[in-house]
Specification:
By secondary structure, the protein is an alpha/beta fold. The protein has helices spanning 13-24, 38-47, 64-74, 89-98, 110-121, 129-142, 156-165, 171-178, 182-196, 201-210, and strands at residues 4-9, 29-35, 52-55, 79-84, 102-105. Strands 2-1-3-4-5 form a 5-stranded parallel sheet, with helices on both faces. α3 (64-74) runs parallel beside α4 (89-98), α4 (89-98) crosses α6 and α6 runs parallel beside α10. The longest helix has 15 residues, at 182-196. The protein is globular and about 50 Å long.
């Protein structure tokens, strides 16, 4: 397996140390640097490109939302995983909309944090049903539906995958629900990303919610 190179961004040095300790337990993950705000993170990425950035949200200077948007625009191959204490819609949603590929709380288990790093590095993302629901509801409430015509039509099976993605299901859970292999689910998601020109599962949900293709009742 290839090495996963990680940059940790947080204004608290104790948190940076703890997160570094957690992810360093995995022999395939290497923490290549730390930064205390978005400005330092961008400077670091310019010098030494990480694969994954573990990003706090609230920081002095440039916060995590601003930094994530800048990183995704300039280095689309770099994945951002939000790791924060904040779980309100006023932070979760802007962070995901800015381009973060995943969202974890700092009190998550070490195993969950390592899994999160691995998932975003692989091009996937893991959103709990609550976070997925918040995302879809927020997008639908802040922008009227009507963009569906701008998106290429999905096949029936791709639509089934999308519906389950909007429920916060993982690839494995979608596969079990549809009685197909996890590889088949990944292939369907890959085709949706290609059709809609988005980069990951989170952005599939954002695009679908903007277009009025998914909803929570």
């Amino acid at each position: 397996m290839p090495e996963i190179r990680v940059l940790i961004v947080d204004d608290d040095p104790l948190v940076r140390s703890a997160l570094s300790h957690f992810v360093a337990r995995d022999p395939e993950i290497t923490v290549i640097g730390q930064a205390e705000d978005g400005y330092e993170a961008i400077d670091f990425i310019q010098r030494d490109r990480p694969d994954v950035v573990m990003m706090d949200v609230q920081m002095p200077g440039m916060n995590g939302i601003e930094a994530t948007a800048a990183i995704v625009e300039r280095w689309p191959d770099v994945r951002v995983l939000a790791v924060t204490t904040l779980d309100g819609s006023d932070t979760v949603l802007p962070m995901l909309s800015a381009g973060a590929s995943g969202y974890l709380l700092k009190d998550s288990s070490a195993e969950s944090i390592v899994t999160g790093v691995r998932e975003v590095h692989s091009g996937a993302s893991s959103l709990s049903p609550r976070i997925a629901s918040l995302l879809v509801k927020h997008v639908r409430s802040t922008e009227p539906a009507g963009g569906a015509a701008k998106l290429e039509t999905l096949t029936d099976r791709e639509t089934e995958v999308l519906e389950r993605l909007a429920q916060g299901m993982s690839n494995a859970e979608i596969a079990q629900s549809l009685i197909v292999s996890e590889g088949t689910v990944k292939a369907h998601l890959g085709r949706i990303m290609s059709k809609w020109q988005v980069r990951d599962r989170v952005q599939i949900l954002v695009a679908a919610a903007h277009a009025g293709l998914v909803d929570f009742r």
